[in-house]
Amino acid sequence: MKIGVTLFATDRLLPPADIAREIEARNLDSLFLPEHSHIPASRRTVWPGSRPGQNDPLPDYYWHLHDQVVALSMAAAVTTTLTLGTSVTLLPQHDPIWMAKQMASLDHLSGGRLVMGIGFGWNVEQGESHGVAFRDRRQRTEECVAIMRALWTREEAAFQGEQLHLEPSWAYPKPAQPNGPPIIIGGMGPRTYDAIARYADGWMPITGRGSLAGRIEPLREAFERHGRDPASLRVFISGASENPDDLANLAREGVEHVTLTIWSEDSTEVRHRLDDFARIAEAARQRFDS
Q1: Which residues have C-beta within 8 Å of that of residue 63, sequence separation ≥ 6?
Q2: How do residues 154-173 score in pLDDT, each as one tens digit?
Q3: At the fourth CATH level, which superfamily is domain 2-289?
C-alpha cells in the first residue's frame, strides 16, 4: 500500500515544488491536491465540514488555493517517483476537452504518474458560476469522463451525450498510461457506487476508519451487477488514520493507497508533520510485513 500526503496548496504555503521535494525525500509516495476555482461570497450551501445542523463558516483556505494542475505540474518537474493526484477534481465544472488535454499532458510529461480523483461538487453556487445546475452535475460528470477517455485512447475521438457533444476530433499528446490516468470517484452512497461501477476505476472515500468492512462490499456487488470483476476495484483513502495499525489493516483489506492530511500552512509545522508521516508509514509497513 502506498502512503502519501494531501493538503490545501494555498498561496500562503510552501510552493508546490518545495513540498513535493520534501515528500519524496522522506520516501512518502504521493502528493494529492484538492481544487476550488473560487468561492462565491453568497454561498448558502452547507459546508460538508460543518457541525450537525449548522452551516459553519468556510475556512478561507478554500479560496486561497493554487490551480490544481499547475501546482501538480510544478511537483512533477522536481520529482521522479512521486504519484501526482487530484483529490478531487470538480469535473463537471470543467470543459472536458481542455481537461483531457491538461491531464494527458501532465501524465505524459511525468512518465505516467497521475491519478485523477474526481468529484461531483457540493457547492451549488460555485457550480452555477460555471454554468452547471446542481441537478445535472452527475450526468455531466459521466459524460466528461466519456469524452476524456475517448480523447486519451482513440486516434479519432467522438461522443454524443445528453449534455455534451464531441465531433470527430484528433488530440495529442496521449497519456503515458495506456488507458489514461485512473479515474477514482470520491463520495459515498448507492448512486456513487453505481457510478464507480459503470465508468470509473476506483473509489476514494474520506475516512479515518481503520477498516472498510461493511462499506466496500456494496461497491464490489455493484461491480458484479455491471459485469466487472470486483477484484479490479481500486481503493484510495483520503484523510486516512495516522495509526500504523489501522493503516496495516487497510492494506490487508486491499486498500491500494492512502493519504494523510496536513492542515497547517506554516512551513516549519509542515516539515514536522512530514517527518511524523514518514515514521507512521515505516511503522505501518513493518506491521503489515510482520
Answers
A1: 36, 38, 39
A2: 999 999 999 999 999 999 99
A3: Luciferase-like domain (3.20.20.30)
